[in-house]
Amino acid sequence: MTELKVDSDPADLGFDADRLGRIDTHFARYVDNGLLPGWLAVISRQGKIAYVGTSGLRDVEAGLPVELDTRWRIFSMTKPITSVAAMMLYEQGLFQLTDPISQWLPEFAEPRVFTKGSSLRPVTEPATEPIRVWHLLTHTAGLTYGFHHAGPVDALYRAQGYEWGTPPGLDLAACSQAWAKLPLVFQPGSEWNYSVATDVLGRLVEVVAGKPLDEFFSEAIFGPLGMTETAFWTEDTDRLAAMYVPTPGTGKIVRNDAFGAVGAARPDCLSGGGGLVSTAADYHRFTQMLLRGGELDGVRVLGPRTVELMASNHLPGHVDLEAYGRPLFAEMPFDGHGFGLGFSVLEDPIKAKSLASAGEFAWGGAASTAFWVDPDEDLTAMFFTQLLPSSTYPLRQHLRQLVYQALVG
After folding, report:
1. Residue 392 DSSP one-character state
2. What are the residues facing 178 on neighbouring strands?
3. What pLDDT digit, counting tens, does each position of 337-371 carry?
4. Number of helices and strands (H, E) in the chain?
5. What predicted TM-score, i.e. pTM, was given to this entire model?
6. In this structure, how many other beta carbons lie within 10 angstroms of the beta carbon of residue 223?
7. CA–CA separation, 267 vs 241, rounded Å?
8. Torsion, Cα of 115, 116, 121, 127 (10° steps)
């Protein structure tokens, strides 16, 4: 395991150490008030770690503390990894971003789009545009999630067992075939909707690469980057943090062992949209690779122009995510943010009412984990905990405030 520790004086990296201490004070209150089980945060600048902070427990009932090698279910922080995997294949010339995905996933050859009706009697029409690779990367394919509860198509997903997971016994190929039979919520490329698109992208990676997603991740990304403790499951369950949800009314945490089983055994479906377990040290290496334009410690994963393309807003009409409405799980407003090939992209800090820099790209996970990369300030930040859903508290907004208020040089 890569050692995770502060390796430079924060002042040498432009941080006021006392102001960084506000991170500890702020998030420790969440633990003291019973609103979070425990947490870990890491702040880096110029390739050096300026801050590592922890508080609380990874397993409250067992009295086990959060440690630097604690393993976390990163859920949708899997999506950037899957997006990087796809772009690695793109760089090999194996597909174009504009290619219809039906070239590799024939189940998507004739998608239909929901127009009216109910989940019991949906009315659909043929798609006027094929689902293309870039649609998957940008969540503009017209796919959805059952947990949105936003309309009849979401209900169709739930009826087939696709709400917070996938039906037992179905692998990624079978899930992809099932999603292809369900109607799209809009014409491909016309809108943005957070969805299983990255899971379908993971299936595309499998077919193009000719191997299971976990094998490709290990050979192409985790091995080369030294991410030795990132996988779709872990046998070292003692280090896997327990999962918690808030109690209605009080917000006090209560253990949720239904979600806690995630990551403790090999899943039937290798979810490129939300299936990985990782450590802070491993994910830190991933963020450093992104910050350096695709290279880390002499290992190049992507070319710098590819990373730049991924961290640019690709939304139709170049509009904000806010134009499409906030996802039900979102814990921060999307004003001033676009979406690239696997990340949100901050375009207008003033509109976003944020101290962060234009060009910051980021994403988070359903259990309140988060990361961002700020190329302008040569900075990365990560936050780990295990609280569902991520909309429970504005943890990501608070962390941004606390990091940037401490940046003085």
Report:
1. S
2. none
3. 999 999 999 999 999 999 999 999 999 999 999 99
4. 13, 16
5. 0.97
6. 12
7. 18
8. 0
